[in-house]
Design goal:
Layout (H helix, E strand, L loop, with lengths): L17 H22 L13 H21 L1
Length: 74
């Protein structure tokens, strides 16, 4: 299996086809890359530590909002 990977989902073929599963996985990679970019060089956002669930949810929302704005502007 050198050079191959397997994507497994709990959804049936009617709900999510094999092609859509691969597309969803590739989109996830783009989102992860966007988080890395937001947290490192481009935006220079320093590490922020949250201790409550509400603040953590708000932080993730703001990160996704900034990614969405960046994506729509690009």
């Amino acid at each position: 299996m050198d050079g191959l990977y397997i994507i497994r989902t709990s959804l049936d073929e009617e709900t999510l086809s094999a092609t859509d599963t691969v597309k969803a996985d590739k989109n996830l990679l783009q989102v992860e890359q966007a988080f890395r970019i937001d947290k490192t060089v481009d935006l220079k956002v320093r590490p922020i530590y949250h201790w409550t669930a509400e603040r953590l949810k708000a932080h993730i929302f703001l990160c996704m909002l900034s990614y969405s704005v960046e994506w729509h502007m690009g």
